[in-house]
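Intended use. Records like the one below are meant for learning the mapping from a protein sequence to its folded structure. Do not use them to infer anything beyond what is encoded.
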Amino acid sequence: MNIAIVILNWNGRSLLEQFLPSVIKNSQEAVIYLADNASTDDSVTYVKTHFPEIRVVQNKINGGYAKGYNDALAKIDADIYCLLNSDVEVSKGWLAPILKTFQAFNEVAAIQPKILDYKKKTHFEYAGAAGGYIDKLGYPYCRGRIFDTLEKDNGQYDDSIPIFWASGACLFIRKQVFESVGKLDEDFFAHQEEIDLCWRIQSNGYKIVYEGESIVHHLGGATLDSMNPKKTFLNFRNSLYLLVKNVPGKKVWFLVLIRMLLDGLAAFRFLLQGKFSHFFAIFKAHMSFYKNLSTLCKKRKKLSKTGKYYTYFSVVWQYFILKRKHFNQL
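Structure written out for the chain above:
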Protein backbone atom coordinates (compact mmCIF):
# COMPACT_ATOMS: atom_id res chain seq x y z
CA MET A 1 0.00 0.00 0.00
CA ASN A 2 1.28 3.47 -0.80
CA ILE A 3 0.54 6.43 1.43
CA ALA A 4 0.46 10.17 0.76
CA ILE A 5 0.92 12.52 3.70
CA VAL A 6 -0.84 15.74 2.76
CA ILE A 7 -0.20 18.84 4.85
CA LEU A 8 -2.60 21.73 4.31
CA ASN A 9 -0.92 25.13 4.58
CA TRP A 10 -2.08 28.73 4.65
CA ASN A 11 0.54 31.37 5.45
CA GLY A 12 2.23 28.93 7.81
CA ARG A 13 5.94 29.21 7.13
CA SER A 14 6.89 29.25 10.82
CA LEU A 15 4.91 26.06 11.45
CA LEU A 16 6.48 24.37 8.44
CA GLU A 17 9.95 25.31 9.68
CA GLN A 18 9.16 23.85 13.09
CA PHE A 19 7.26 20.67 12.23
CA LEU A 20 8.22 19.49 8.74
CA PRO A 21 11.61 18.05 9.80
CA SER A 22 9.97 15.45 12.07
CA VAL A 23 7.55 14.42 9.32
CA ILE A 24 10.35 13.98 6.78
CA LYS A 25 12.60 12.14 9.23
CA ASN A 26 9.97 9.66 10.40
CA SER A 27 7.93 9.05 7.22
CA GLN A 28 10.20 7.09 4.90
CA GLU A 29 7.29 4.88 3.82
CA ALA A 30 5.29 7.81 2.44
CA VAL A 31 5.31 10.55 -0.19
CA ILE A 32 4.85 13.97 1.44
CA TYR A 33 2.78 16.73 -0.15
CA LEU A 34 2.23 20.35 0.79
CA ALA A 35 -1.29 21.44 -0.19
CA ASP A 36 -1.12 25.22 -0.20
CA ASN A 37 -4.33 27.20 0.21
CA ALA A 38 -3.31 30.26 -1.82
CA SER A 39 -0.84 31.56 0.76
CA THR A 40 0.38 35.13 0.51
CA ASP A 41 3.55 34.57 2.54
CA ASP A 42 6.69 32.82 1.25
CA SER A 43 5.87 29.40 2.72
CA VAL A 44 5.72 27.67 -0.67
CA THR A 45 9.03 29.15 -1.77
CA TYR A 46 10.53 28.15 1.58
CA VAL A 47 9.43 24.52 1.19
CA LYS A 48 10.59 24.27 -2.42
CA THR A 49 13.99 25.70 -1.43
CA HIS A 50 14.64 23.80 1.81
CA PHE A 51 12.66 20.59 1.30
CA PRO A 52 12.79 19.79 -2.45
CA GLU A 53 11.68 16.22 -1.75
CA ILE A 54 8.21 17.51 -0.77
CA ARG A 55 5.74 17.76 -3.63
CA VAL A 56 3.67 20.96 -3.74
CA VAL A 57 0.03 21.22 -4.82
CA GLN A 58 -1.15 24.82 -5.05
CA ASN A 59 -4.86 25.57 -4.64
CA LYS A 60 -6.26 28.63 -6.38
CA ILE A 61 -8.17 29.96 -3.35
CA ASN A 62 -8.28 29.54 0.42
CA GLY A 63 -11.33 27.31 0.71
CA GLY A 64 -10.67 26.32 4.30
CA TYR A 65 -9.94 22.80 5.50
CA ALA A 66 -12.68 21.07 3.52
CA LYS A 67 -12.30 22.58 0.06
CA GLY A 68 -8.55 22.87 0.51
CA TYR A 69 -8.20 19.13 0.98
CA ASN A 70 -10.83 18.23 -1.62
CA ASP A 71 -9.05 20.28 -4.28
CA ALA A 72 -5.58 19.00 -3.38
CA LEU A 73 -6.47 15.31 -2.99
CA ALA A 74 -8.10 15.30 -6.42
CA LYS A 75 -4.58 15.76 -7.80
CA ILE A 76 -2.90 13.11 -5.62
CA ASP A 77 -2.92 9.38 -6.23
CA ALA A 78 -2.33 6.99 -3.32
CA ASP A 79 -4.00 4.04 -1.61
CA ILE A 80 -4.06 5.88 1.73
CA TYR A 81 -4.30 9.60 2.40
CA CYS A 82 -2.98 11.07 5.63
CA LEU A 83 -4.55 14.46 6.29
CA LEU A 84 -2.01 16.04 8.63
CA ASN A 85 -2.14 19.48 10.22
CA SER A 86 0.91 21.66 9.73
CA ASP A 87 1.38 21.95 13.51
CA VAL A 88 1.90 18.22 14.20
CA GLU A 89 5.13 16.56 15.27
CA VAL A 90 5.24 12.85 14.44
CA SER A 91 7.18 10.14 16.26
CA LYS A 92 9.51 7.41 15.08
CA GLY A 93 7.64 4.42 13.65
CA TRP A 94 4.29 6.19 13.64
CA LEU A 95 3.23 4.86 10.22
CA ALA A 96 3.93 1.14 10.75
CA PRO A 97 0.94 0.38 13.07
CA ILE A 98 -1.38 2.36 10.79
CA LEU A 99 -0.38 0.47 7.65
CA LYS A 100 -0.53 -2.85 9.50
CA THR A 101 -4.14 -2.21 10.53
CA PHE A 102 -5.21 -1.14 7.04
CA GLN A 103 -3.60 -4.25 5.54
CA ALA A 104 -5.20 -6.59 8.09
CA PHE A 105 -8.78 -5.26 8.00
CA ASN A 106 -10.41 -4.33 4.70
CA GLU A 107 -13.47 -2.94 6.50
CA VAL A 108 -11.37 -0.28 8.26
CA ALA A 109 -11.70 2.90 6.22
CA ALA A 110 -10.09 5.47 8.53
CA ILE A 111 -7.63 5.50 11.43
CA GLN A 112 -6.55 8.04 14.03
CA PRO A 113 -3.30 7.80 16.02
CA LYS A 114 -2.85 8.81 19.65
CA ILE A 115 -2.77 12.62 19.71
CA LEU A 116 -0.81 14.18 22.57
CA ASP A 117 -0.29 17.85 23.41
CA TYR A 118 2.87 19.33 21.90
CA LYS A 119 3.05 21.94 24.68
CA LYS A 120 2.52 19.38 27.46
CA LYS A 121 3.57 16.03 26.08
CA THR A 122 2.42 14.06 29.11
CA HIS A 123 -1.20 14.89 28.32
CA PHE A 124 -3.69 14.30 25.54
CA GLU A 125 -4.50 17.08 23.09
CA TYR A 126 -7.91 18.66 22.59
CA ALA A 127 -8.37 17.78 18.90
CA GLY A 128 -9.02 14.06 18.96
CA ALA A 129 -7.04 12.73 21.96
CA ALA A 130 -7.60 8.94 21.90
CA GLY A 131 -10.56 8.81 19.54
CA GLY A 132 -13.96 10.47 19.26
CA TYR A 133 -17.57 9.67 20.12
CA ILE A 134 -20.99 11.37 19.99
CA ASP A 135 -23.39 11.63 22.94
CA LYS A 136 -27.18 11.41 22.69
CA LEU A 137 -27.51 15.19 22.23
CA GLY A 138 -24.98 15.15 19.41
CA TYR A 139 -22.02 16.57 21.36
CA PRO A 140 -18.62 15.21 20.29
CA TYR A 141 -16.16 14.14 22.98
CA CYS A 142 -13.02 12.00 23.17
CA ARG A 143 -11.28 9.41 25.24
CA GLY A 144 -8.73 11.54 27.04
CA ARG A 145 -10.58 14.84 26.49
CA ILE A 146 -14.05 15.89 27.60
CA PHE A 147 -14.82 19.55 26.92
CA ASP A 148 -11.77 21.41 28.29
CA THR A 149 -10.46 18.66 30.59
CA LEU A 150 -7.39 16.87 29.21
CA GLU A 151 -6.25 13.61 30.78
CA LYS A 152 -2.65 12.65 31.47
CA ASP A 153 -1.39 9.84 29.26
CA ASN A 154 -0.69 6.95 31.64
CA GLY A 155 -0.97 4.29 28.95
CA GLN A 156 -4.70 3.89 29.60
CA TYR A 157 -5.43 4.22 25.87
CA ASP A 158 -2.57 2.21 24.38
CA ASP A 159 -5.08 0.03 22.57
CA SER A 160 -6.57 -0.35 19.12
CA ILE A 161 -10.37 -0.05 19.11
CA PRO A 162 -13.27 1.11 16.92
CA ILE A 163 -14.30 4.74 17.45
CA PHE A 164 -17.05 6.90 15.98
CA TRP A 165 -14.92 9.73 14.58
CA ALA A 166 -11.26 10.41 13.94
CA SER A 167 -9.65 13.82 14.31
CA GLY A 168 -8.87 15.92 11.25
CA ALA A 169 -5.60 16.92 12.90
CA CYS A 170 -4.22 13.56 11.78
CA LEU A 171 -6.64 11.46 9.78
CA PHE A 172 -5.71 8.40 7.70
CA ILE A 173 -8.31 7.35 5.14
CA ARG A 174 -8.51 5.04 2.15
CA LYS A 175 -8.70 7.04 -1.07
CA GLN A 176 -11.46 4.83 -2.47
CA VAL A 177 -13.67 5.40 0.58
CA PHE A 178 -12.94 9.14 0.71
CA GLU A 179 -14.21 9.50 -2.85
CA SER A 180 -17.12 7.07 -2.61
CA VAL A 181 -18.75 8.67 0.47
CA GLY A 182 -18.60 12.18 -0.99
CA LYS A 183 -15.33 13.69 0.31
CA LEU A 184 -15.39 16.59 2.82
CA ASP A 185 -18.46 18.85 2.92
CA GLU A 186 -17.20 22.26 1.79
CA ASP A 187 -20.12 24.10 3.39
CA PHE A 188 -18.49 23.41 6.77
CA PHE A 189 -15.37 25.37 5.68
CA ALA A 190 -13.49 24.26 8.81
CA HIS A 191 -14.24 22.46 12.12
CA GLN A 192 -16.27 19.26 12.51
CA GLU A 193 -16.17 18.45 8.82
CA GLU A 194 -14.14 15.36 9.72
CA ILE A 195 -16.92 14.20 12.06
CA ASP A 196 -19.42 14.60 9.22
CA LEU A 197 -17.11 12.59 6.96
CA CYS A 198 -16.69 9.85 9.60
CA TRP A 199 -20.44 9.72 10.13
CA ARG A 200 -20.93 9.07 6.41
CA ILE A 201 -18.18 6.46 6.45
CA GLN A 202 -19.96 4.55 9.21
CA SER A 203 -23.33 4.93 7.48
CA ASN A 204 -21.82 3.21 4.46
CA GLY A 205 -20.80 0.17 6.48
CA TYR A 206 -17.11 0.86 7.12
CA LYS A 207 -15.23 1.07 10.42
CA ILE A 208 -13.06 3.78 11.97
CA VAL A 209 -10.28 2.78 14.34
CA TYR A 210 -8.02 4.40 16.92
CA GLU A 211 -4.47 3.06 16.91
CA GLY A 212 -2.66 3.74 20.20
CA GLU A 213 0.72 2.46 19.02
CA SER A 214 1.02 5.39 16.61
CA ILE A 215 1.80 8.67 18.39
CA VAL A 216 1.81 12.30 17.25
CA HIS A 217 2.01 15.61 19.14
CA HIS A 218 -0.32 18.43 18.12
CA LEU A 219 0.28 22.11 18.88
CA GLY A 220 -3.37 23.07 18.33
CA GLY A 221 -4.98 26.45 17.69
CA ALA A 222 -2.42 27.34 15.04
CA THR A 223 -5.04 28.61 12.58
CA LEU A 224 -7.84 29.63 14.96
CA ASP A 225 -7.38 29.51 18.72
CA SER A 226 -10.21 29.11 21.23
CA MET A 227 -10.34 32.86 21.86
CA ASN A 228 -11.18 33.62 18.24
CA PRO A 229 -14.92 34.37 17.71
CA LYS A 230 -14.70 32.84 14.22
CA LYS A 231 -13.91 29.49 15.81
CA THR A 232 -16.94 29.88 18.09
CA PHE A 233 -19.08 30.67 15.05
CA LEU A 234 -17.87 27.65 13.08
CA ASN A 235 -18.19 25.22 15.99
CA PHE A 236 -21.74 26.21 16.91
CA ARG A 237 -22.98 26.46 13.32
CA ASN A 238 -21.33 23.26 12.16
CA SER A 239 -22.69 21.32 15.13
CA LEU A 240 -26.19 22.05 13.82
CA TYR A 241 -25.14 21.23 10.25
CA LEU A 242 -23.82 17.89 11.48
CA LEU A 243 -27.07 16.90 13.16
CA VAL A 244 -29.43 17.88 10.36
CA LYS A 245 -27.37 16.03 7.78
CA ASN A 246 -26.84 12.81 9.69
CA VAL A 247 -29.25 12.07 12.57
CA PRO A 248 -31.86 9.54 11.36
CA GLY A 249 -35.60 9.98 11.69
CA LYS A 250 -37.85 12.83 12.78
CA LYS A 251 -36.15 13.01 16.18
CA VAL A 252 -33.51 15.18 14.53
CA TRP A 253 -35.74 18.26 14.82
CA PHE A 254 -36.32 17.77 18.56
CA LEU A 255 -32.58 17.30 18.95
CA VAL A 256 -31.82 20.48 16.99
CA LEU A 257 -34.29 22.42 19.19
CA ILE A 258 -32.61 21.16 22.37
CA ARG A 259 -29.18 22.02 21.02
CA MET A 260 -30.26 25.54 20.05
CA LEU A 261 -31.63 26.11 23.54
CA LEU A 262 -28.33 24.91 25.03
CA ASP A 263 -26.51 27.19 22.58
CA GLY A 264 -28.57 30.04 24.04
CA LEU A 265 -27.34 29.16 27.52
CA ALA A 266 -23.77 29.12 26.24
CA ALA A 267 -24.30 32.53 24.63
CA PHE A 268 -25.68 33.93 27.89
CA ARG A 269 -22.62 32.55 29.72
CA PHE A 270 -20.36 34.39 27.27
CA LEU A 271 -22.38 37.54 27.91
CA LEU A 272 -21.91 37.26 31.68
CA GLN A 273 -18.19 36.77 31.13
CA GLY A 274 -18.01 39.95 29.05
CA LYS A 275 -17.11 37.99 25.89
CA PHE A 276 -19.48 39.92 23.67
CA SER A 277 -17.86 38.88 20.38
CA HIS A 278 -18.45 35.21 21.24
CA PHE A 279 -22.05 35.97 22.20
CA PHE A 280 -22.65 37.51 18.78
CA ALA A 281 -20.74 34.63 17.11
CA ILE A 282 -23.38 32.18 18.39
CA PHE A 283 -26.17 34.47 17.17
CA LYS A 284 -24.52 34.64 13.73
CA ALA A 285 -24.08 30.86 13.76
CA HIS A 286 -27.82 30.38 14.20
CA MET A 287 -28.62 32.91 11.49
CA SER A 288 -26.30 31.10 9.10
CA PHE A 289 -27.94 27.80 10.03
CA TYR A 290 -31.41 29.15 9.21
CA LYS A 291 -30.14 30.57 5.93
CA ASN A 292 -28.72 27.23 4.81
CA LEU A 293 -31.38 24.92 6.27
CA SER A 294 -33.00 24.11 2.92
CA THR A 295 -29.64 23.10 1.46
CA LEU A 296 -28.96 20.89 4.49
CA CYS A 297 -32.34 19.20 4.10
CA LYS A 298 -31.56 18.40 0.47
CA LYS A 299 -28.25 16.86 1.52
CA ARG A 300 -30.02 14.94 4.27
CA LYS A 301 -32.30 13.23 1.76
CA LYS A 302 -29.33 11.97 -0.25
CA LEU A 303 -27.48 10.39 2.66
CA SER A 304 -27.99 6.94 4.14
CA LYS A 305 -28.54 7.07 7.89
CA THR A 306 -26.88 4.85 10.44
CA GLY A 307 -29.10 3.62 13.27
CA LYS A 308 -27.12 3.78 16.51
CA TYR A 309 -24.71 6.71 16.37
CA TYR A 310 -24.50 7.86 19.98
CA THR A 311 -23.62 6.82 23.51
CA TYR A 312 -26.67 6.53 25.75
CA PHE A 313 -25.81 9.37 28.12
CA SER A 314 -25.53 13.16 27.86
CA VAL A 315 -21.90 14.18 28.22
CA VAL A 316 -23.10 17.68 29.17
CA TRP A 317 -25.01 16.27 32.16
CA GLN A 318 -22.14 13.98 33.13
CA TYR A 319 -19.53 16.74 32.94
CA PHE A 320 -21.26 19.87 34.22
CA ILE A 321 -23.81 18.43 36.66
CA LEU A 322 -22.26 15.16 37.89
CA LYS A 323 -18.71 16.59 37.61
CA ARG A 324 -17.37 13.51 35.83
CA LYS A 325 -14.36 14.85 33.99
CA HIS A 326 -12.61 11.71 32.73
CA PHE A 327 -13.72 9.17 30.13
CA ASN A 328 -13.61 6.20 32.51
CA GLN A 329 -16.05 7.99 34.85
CA LEU A 330 -18.82 8.29 32.28
